[in-house]
Amino acid sequence: MSGWRVWGQHGPWRAKLREGYERTLVFLQCCCFLDVFSNHVMQVHQCLGPSMLPTFNVSGDILLMELFSAKFERIKPGDVVMAHSPINPKLMVCKRVMGLEGDHVKVIPTSGRGLYKQIVVPKGHVWLQGDNTHVSRDSRDYGPIPYALIQGRVFFRIWPPKGFGPVERHEP
Amino acid sequence: MGATGIAWLFAKRVLTGTVVGLAIADEFASVAGMHGHSMQPTLNPAGESLLGFLSGDFLLLDKISGHNYHFSRGDIVVFRSPLEPREWMVKRLIALQGDWVTVPGRRDIVHIPRGHCWVEGDNVNVSLDSKSFGPIPLALLKAKATHVIWPPNRMSHLESKLPEGRVLLEKV
Fold first, then answer.
1. Which residues of A are catalytic?
2. Where are the domains positioned within chain B?
3. pLDDT score of A2
4. Which of A40, A73, A146 sits opposite B137 (nearest CB)?
5. How confident is the model at residue B38, as a pLDDT?
6. Domain B3-168: CATH class, spelled out
7. How far apart are CA B43 and CA A134, in angstroms?
8. Domain that holds residue A81
9. Any idea what DSSP says for residue B2?
10. Which of A64, A161, B4, B122 is 20 to 30 Å from the Cα of B14, by its Cα?
C-alpha cells in the first residue's frame, strides 16, 4: 500500500504540493496588489520626445504619475499630466494643462508665426499644450480633449539624476 | 490567539479579498447597474421605478476587449462621458475611424476622424449621444457589455447589431 502513503497526510509529496499551492497563491496576490496599485494609485512612465522641452529632456525622462488628482478632479491649470491621445488611443501623451472647462486660453499658433487666438474651453474638456510650443502636437492640432482622457498628474521625476525632484506647476 | 489577533487576521483577509476583487474587476470582467431610457428597447425596457437604479438592468462587462480597444461596430460599449468626467454611459458603437455615418434628421454625412468613434443609443428620440456631442475619442471606451445578468427574467446575451444602411465602412 505504498501508493496510499504518497497521498497520506505526512507524505513528502503532499507537503511539496501544499507548499507549491501556497506559493502560487502568494504570487497571485502580489500580482493583484501591483495591478490595483498601478490602476488606482501611481504609475511610472517615460516621457519621450521634444514636446516638453525645456521641462523634460528629449531622451526620455522617467516620471512618477499619481492617479488621485485626475480621479477626484483636482487637476489645476499648469499641472503636467499624462493623457490618452485622442488620435491614437494606445498612445499616452505628456503635456501641460493650459485651461479647464470655461477658461479662456490664449493660443499660440503652432508655426510660431501669426496671430494669437483666444478660445473658451468647452464643458467637460481641457486644453493641453506642450512646453515647447514650436514642436509639440497638442490641443492646437486636435482641439480641446475630454477631461476623462487624463490619466494622472506627473508629480515627480526620478531620472536623470540631475533632474531628480518634484515636477513644478507653472500657472499659464 | 487573542481578540486582536483574530481581528488582525480578519482585516487582512478582507483587504486581500478587496484587492483581488478589484484586480479581477479591472482586468477581466465586472458588473454594473444602469439607468435611463436611452438604450430601450434593448436595455431597461420597463423604464424607471421608484427604486432608482436598482430597478434597472445589471450588465456583465467584458474588460479585456477594453485594454486593446478591440471593439466592433454594433457592440454595446461602456465609456466615460466626454461632457461629465464622472459619468459613465452605455451606448451602441456605430462607426469607427475612417467610416462615414448618416445622421437621422440631418442631410449631411459625418466622417469619423482618426482615433474616434460614433456612439448612439438604441432609443433614437431620447438618447444623448454622438448626435449631440459628435464623434468621441476611442480612448474613452472602457468595456463591452456582453450579457444582462439581472433581473433574472431578462438574463440574456447581448447581440452585436448594426442599424442597416447607416454606415459606409472605410475601405480596407
1. 51, 95
2. 3-168
3. 46
4. A146
5. 85
6. mainly beta
7. 49
8. 44-166
9. -
10. A64
Virtual torsion, Cα A57, A60, A61, A67, nearest 10 deg: 120
Give me the residues of B, 41-80, that contact A with CB < 8 A.
Answer: 68-69, 80
Instruction: Return the pLDDT at B49.
Output: 61
Residue from the list A39, A88, A146 with its beta carbon closest to the beta carbon of B82: A146
Residue A171 lies in a domain: no
Task: Report yes or no: A149 at the B interface, CB cutoff 8 Å.
Answer: yes
- pLDDT tens by residue, B61-79: 999 999 999 999 999 999 9
In this structure, are A139 and A69 located in the same domain?
Answer: yes
User: Is residue A61 in some structural domain?
Assistant: yes
Residues of B with catalytic annotation? 38, 91
- Contacting residues of A for B24, CB less than 8 Å apart: 32
Residue A84 belongs to a domain with what CATH number?
2.10.109.10
**Residues B87, A46: Cα–Cα separation, whole Å:** 30
B21: nearest CA partner in chain A = A32
